[in-house]
Amino acid sequence: MYETYRDLPPIQVTTETTVDMPTGTWRTFRPVISAERCTRCYSCWKFCPDLSIVVQQEGDYPYVDLFHCKGCGICANECRRGAITMEREPL
Ligand code: SF4
Ligand code: SF4
User: Fold this and answer.
1) Which of 4, 3, 1 is nearest to 16 (CA)?
2) Which residues in the chain land under pLDDT 70?
3) What is the model's pLDDT at position 8?
């Protein structure tokens, strides 16, 4: 383990998996996918930096892993069909 910051490598790294971290608690807006508009092109899946768009099998509609999704809105920005809207989380 690291004793001081001087022991850290010169780049930012994590030594632990973030799978068990509920990063979705940071979110103020959540992506909502409209099945009526979605063409299952999976651009949202490709661009999500958190791997929070889930496609179980090819041909399925994507859904959002809300345990990890931080609400950055990249998926909504990348969806050319306008099938993803960012909705405010309840306070
Ligand atoms: S980018 Fe939009 S149209 Fe494509 S799979 Fe995602 S929600 Fe559906
Ligand atoms: S809002 Fe951001 S983190 Fe959440 S599913 Fe979309 S791209 Fe991924």
Assistant:
1) 1
2) 1-2, 12-14
3) 72
Ligand approaching nearest to the C-alpha of 23:
2
- For residue 4, the model assigns a pLDDT of 83
Q: Say if CB 47 and CB 74 are below 8 A apart.
A: yes
Of 54, 84, 85, 86, the one to substitute when testing ligand 1's pocket (max ligand atoms within 8 A of C-beta) is: 84
* CA pair distance 55, 29, nearest whole angstrom: 21
Residues whose CB is less than 8 angstroms from the CB of residue 31 and which lie 6 or more positions away in sequence, other chains included: 44, 64, 69, 71, 73, 75, 76, 84, 85, 86, 87
Query: Residue 12: its pLDDT value, please?
Result: 67
Domain 19-88, CATH among 2.40.50.140, 1.10.357.10, 3.30.70.20, 3.90.1570.30: 3.30.70.20
